[in-house]
């Protein structure tokens, strides 16, 4: 025989918030919650003591109830992570204000749509990041940073070191770069010079 769903409420207010959990508690009690976990903590993080305690005690068939979705989390990413933890416990989720109930087909579809939008947002961020890096490389920047030395400065460093007028350490101090950077510039210059010599031969 299937047991009746055990409703567990979760109420949260932020630190420094003048409001209390009283209004949420009344709504959760009216919804039939047998137990309510109350917490005063920021919704910007998911690893809250009472939230973790509640998730750790969930059994299959339980239903987590909140007054409003943002009481669970203000971050979409964290909310989906919490929802996954609830689902792994075999429990359901219900939000009274948004009328979301994952124990129903419509509620599960709603959360799948939320997850799809979150994945779409992550994909857009990845695309913007890739486009930004490509633009940075086109402008002579690596990893979003502009090259510290221009072509003229790099040529002056290479010619000064290869001619013996200055040492690598001296040029590094003069231009404010590391000695390995100077070594790479000189090596690239020598390679380019050798290639030009072969082409002219």
Automatic annotation (TrEMBL):
Organism: Novosphingobium sediminis
PROSITE patterns, A to Z: RECOMBINASES_2, RECOMBINASES_3
Name assigned to this protein: DNA invertase
Pfam families recorded: Resolvase
GO BP: DNA integration
Highest taxon in the source lineage: Bacteria
KW DNA-binding (keyword) present: yes
One example GO MF annotation: DNA strand exchange activity
Domain spans labelled Resolvase/invertase-type recombinase catalytic: 6-140
SUPFAM superfamilies, sorted: Resolvase-like (SSF53041)
Alphabetized UniProt keyword annotations: DNA integration, DNA invertase, DNA recombination, DNA-binding
Stretch list, region Disordered: 147-166
SMART domains (UniProt xref): Resolvase
Family membership: Belongs to the site-specific recombinase resolvase family.
């Amino acid at each position: 025989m299937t047991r009746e769903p055990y409703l567990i409420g979760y109420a949260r207010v932020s630190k420094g918030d003048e409001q209390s959990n009283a209004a949420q508690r009344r709504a959760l009690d009216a919804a039939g919650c047998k137990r309510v976990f109350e917490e005063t903590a920021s919704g910007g993080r998911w690893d809250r003591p009472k939230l973790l305690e509640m998730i750790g005690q969930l059994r299959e068939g339980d239903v987590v109830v909140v007054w409003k979705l943002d009481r669970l989390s203000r971050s979409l990413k964290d909310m989906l992570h919490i929802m996954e933890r609830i689902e792994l416990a075999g429990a359901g989720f219900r939000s009274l204000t948004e009328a979301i109930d994952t124990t129903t087909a419509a509620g599960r579809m709603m959360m799948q749509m939320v997850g799809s939008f979150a994945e779409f947002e992550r994909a857009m961020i990845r695309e913007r990041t890739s486009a930004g890096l490509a633009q940075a490389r086109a402008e002579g920047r690596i990893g979003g940073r502009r090259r510290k030395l221009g072509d003229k400065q790099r040529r002056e460093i290479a010619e000064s070191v290869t001619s013996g007028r200055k040492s690598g350490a001296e040029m590094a101090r003069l231009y404010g770069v590391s000695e390995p950077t100077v070594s790479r510039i000189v090596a690239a210059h020598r390679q380019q010079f050798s290639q030009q010599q072969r082409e002219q031969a």
